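Subject: Sanity check before I submit

Could someone independently write out the structure tokens for this chain? I want to compare against mine line by line before I put it in a report. The sequence has 314 residues.
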Amino acid sequence: MNVAGRAFKVGLACTLAAGPVAAVELRLPQTARQTVERNTPLDRYRAPVDVYENGALRSVDIDGAVARSVWRIDQQGLTPLQIAAPLRAQIEEAGYEIVLDCAATACGGYDFRFATEVLPGPNMYVNLRDFHFITGLRGDADAPEAAVTVFASSGSAVSYVQIIQAGEAAAEDAPDVVALPPEAQVAVPPASFEEALERDGRIVLTSLDFASGTSTLGEGPFAALDALAQVMQDQPNLRVALVGHTDTVGALDMNIGLSRARAQSVRARLIERYGVAAGRLDAEGMGYLAPLTSNTTEAGREENRRVEAIVVAF
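---
Independent answer below. Compare away.
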């Protein structure tokens, strides 16, 4: 199906030899919305130029204005490459040389993600098993005048893309989101939430919003719950267990109780707002006993705080 996209001016340092600074328009699906923006007029950005290997991540420093933004895409079925590829083409058209283009394990996985700059959650989410990273440089490779990086990551129902631009005048144009004309529509695949649930037997319900330290679920809407409710409507024999998880801050008993209460809040929302039969939903909590990644960093703890849907019967 074709879905109208969005374009935004990212204020890249696109200075030609004798020309003015120009903004680059980058296309994102229509459902994209900005979650955070942080611009600094004089800063240093360390742009990755190689994958993480031999205990290090090679990078180049760019001094100047730095513009950082994250966009959330509430759309199922998008892969990180589908998000990153159109942006890569636009960056190349602007005169940048792509010096790094890698995905997940090939980038260095966990080590790569925690060695490069990533805006913190909940504004940015990185699935360590499903991300794509691109770096484009302008000017001399050893001392570039400008850089742009794209960090795209996909969850079960939503995706995130972080874009960082560094160099002269990078922050002068604030990101400006406008709808693309019909001829610039972006083709996307059908939803794959149900396929992922059937294939893996479990799925993380991404981007649920709980008040800090409580089990109170935000008002939403939450694309992951929309998708799960739709699958349960389409698959009347499907039963799932909702399992909450936490980081390692606090005692185990406390975390098990909190994670269970959050799972119960999700169960209640599915019953009350979506009409899912109570007998098709269980709720339990694991506390910090089943982490996705290390709890030694804030980014890791953020990823470990989650609620999963686990198939009991299909």
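---
OP: Matches mine. For the report I'm noting this point. Residues 252-274 form the longest helix (23 residues).
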